[in-house]
UniProtKB/TrEMBL annotation:
GO terms for biological process: protein lipoylation; regulation of DNA-templated transcription. GO terms for molecular function: ATP binding; biotin--[biotin carboxyl-carrier protein] ligase activity; DNA binding; transferase activity. Its EC number is 6.3.4.15. The keyword Lyase does not apply. Biotin binds at residues 89-91, 113, 184. Belongs to the biotin--protein ligase family. PROSITE patterns: BPL_LPL_CATALYTIC. This is Bifunctional ligase/repressor BirA. It comes from Candidatus Enterocloster excrementipullorum. Acts both as a biotin--[acetyl-CoA-carboxylase] ligase and a repressor.
Length: 326
């Protein structure tokens, strides 16, 4: 009921009477009053005036299931929504939900993670009220060999989500980071469960630095946030909503061919590595070359000094810029 009340208040410029809310929701005015007080406790500024009703004074950066439900405008992503004020990791919770039968498109979000992690088991700082920590649960019908490309699909969706919600233009550092002005703003971690060479489920974890004003010393020179880039605080729910909308679109295109052929040109346009000298940290032997873009399987194409083009497979190696992070 809170989500419905919040949506009605957002859609109305002025006051909405308690009777109108009561009639529209089919509940008592006392129930409406209690729900409004709960929204106030969550951080919403709602004015109540006798004989006029309720009015939303401003849209704060509130992360709750009610807020997310009012913002999501998708066909299937987020129709099942799990929100936590605090959890160990949204990926962990998404996997638990998957094991208990949660459907394709389940969205897990949290205001704070106590054990967030990134690629290769690295920890991910996820303080309360600062970022977007969310995971998408998928149950695709395609082969497990295609699953790693979903990281690239998610990266494109986050890039567009940030652009639509904030006006910034992040680029992708292949395969799983987004950057603005050479500093990391988002990381993506994709995990998969298989059985008999079929996918049981895939979980895509997304962490976006939104309202962070500072970072731990070890990453201070490599990380940034939407707030630092814009010089103002940012509401997180619109970023989530726009990212979800974009992911649905790009995932649909991906599923037509189960590769990046339909998205490749768009992805290359977002690739910060493209045209740059990179160092490929391969366990078999590191080498340098120029990043050309990706192939249809999502591998990074790197032209070596002798003219050979290597297809770098995500997950096997790391790619770094010769002169810095990108």
């Amino acid at each position: 009921m809170k989500a419905e009340i919040l949506k009605m208040l957002k859609e109305r410029q002025g006051f909405v009477s308690g009777q109108e809310l009561s009639d529209g929701l089919g509940v008592s005015r006392t129930a409406v009053w209690k729900a409004v007080n709960q929204l106030k406790a969550e951080g919403w500024q709602i004015e109540a005036v006798r004989s006029q009703g309720y009015r939303l004074l401003g849209e704060a950066d509130v992360m709750t299931s009610s807020e997310l439900a009012t913002m999501l405008d998708t066909d299937w992503l987020g129709k099942r929504l799990a929100y936590y004020d605090e959890t160990d990791s949204t990926n962990v919770q998404a996997r638990k939900l998957a094991e208990s039968g949660a459907p394709h498109g389940t969205l897990v979000a949290a205001d704070c993670q106590t054990a967030g992690k990134g690629r290769r088991g690295r920890s991910w700082s996820s303080p309360k009220g600062t970022g977007i920590w969310m995971s998408i649960l998928l149950r695709p019908a395609f082969s497990p060999v295609c699953a790693s490309m979903l990281t690239l699909v998610a990266g494109m969706a986050v890039a567009r989500g940030i652009e639509e919600a904030c006006g910034l233009h992040p680029l992708i550092k292949w395969p799983n980071d987004l950057v603005i002005d050479g500093k990391k703003i988002c990381g993506i971690l994709t995990e998969m469960s298989t059985e008999d060479e079929e996918i049981r489920y895939v979980v895509i974890g997304i962490g976006i630095n939104v309202n962070n004003e500072e970072f731990p010393p070890e990453i201070r020179d490599k990380a940034t946030s939407l707030r630092l880039e814009l010089g103002r605080s940012v509401r997180r729910s619109p970023v989530i909503a726009e990212t979800a909308r974009a992911f649905e679109e790009y995932y649909g295109i991906f599923c037509r061919s189960c590769d990046m052929s339909g998205l490749r040109q768009m992805y290359d346009g977002l690739l910060v590595n493209r045209g740059r000298q990179v160092c490929v940290l391969d366990p078999k032997g590191s080498y340098e070359g120029q990043a050309l873009g990706i192939d249809d399987q999502g591998s990074l194409l790197v032209e070596r000094e002798d003219g050979r083009v290597s297809h770098v497979i995500s997950g096997e190696v790391s790619v770094r810029g010769i002169y810095g992070y990108v």
